[in-house]
Amino acid sequence: MDLIDIGCNLTHDSFNEDRHQVIERARDAGLVQMVVTGASEKGSRAALELARNYPGELFATAGVHPHLASEFTDGTERTLRELSSHEEVVAVGETGLDYFRDISPRDVQRKVFQTQLQIGIDTALPLFLHMRDAHKDFHAILKAHRSQLEQVVVHCFTGNREQLHDYIELDCYIGITGWICDERRGTHMKEFLHDIPIDRLLVETDAPYLKPRNLRPRVKTHRNEPRWLPWIVGTLAAARGEQPDYVAAQTTENARTFFGLPTIQP
Fold it and tell me: Rounded to whole angstroms, how far apart are CA atoms 104 and 202?
């Protein structure tokens, strides 16, 4: 299976000692391309730098996670706009709302979210979005801007069926992670994963977070890696009643369409 991980945090310091080996293991597992998430000003710069070291294989996003919205300044906006001009940067984000922890005040999160949506409008780049426990406000803001935006993915979707359909109605792509492999909190999603149109389905690891809990044989580490994306695809395919090869091929095609990625020649 040729696979594309649309969201992995490969600049995270947990990869500092073996980052190249992590990428090699991902290749061996069938991943042909990966999009490195930018979740802060510094992290977005690092994502671009890493993508440049693996041309055609790694790409980057540029954005500020809602947890860090309080740190967003006019200078941050200028930085994101500059980063978005580079060909390796294929989306604006990670941006959105997160009311689960409220690390940044909600009014600040909303303002920074809208600022980054405007960057997406101005650059005509896709949006890589985060939402947790903030559906009402997130959906309202997104809906108000949707007609001006290019492609949108609600990454690491963990909500309910009603929320899913709200995003599908806005013609959003849906990113699925190893959350569905967690019997403690992801089981409810298996009942409606088949509701996602196959041409709006994307897959991601969100590494180093959300290691699939149903990995067999068990691996003695809490750190997730892109190499386990096939396991997520298999779990997703089983829940949808489809073959893993089919889901892999379709999500890879979707990722290339969404981000405008080149096809890797054998």
Answer: 28
Kindly state whether residue 264 falls inside one of the protein's structural domains: no
CATH code of the domain containing 160: 3.20.20.140
Global confidence as pTM: 0.97
Domain assignment of residue 244, given as a range: 3-259
CA pair distance 93, 129, nearest whole angstrom: 6
C-alpha angle 187/189/190, rounded to 5°? Answer: 75
Per run of 10 residues, the mean pLDDT along the chain (length 266 residues) is: 96 98 98 98 98 98 98 98 98 98 97 98 98 98 98 98 98 98 93 98 98 91 97 97 98 98 81
Q: Are 119 and 92 in contact (CB under 8 A)?
A: yes
For 94, the enclosing helix (H) or strand (E) is strand 89-98
| CA gap 31, 23 in Å, rounded | 9
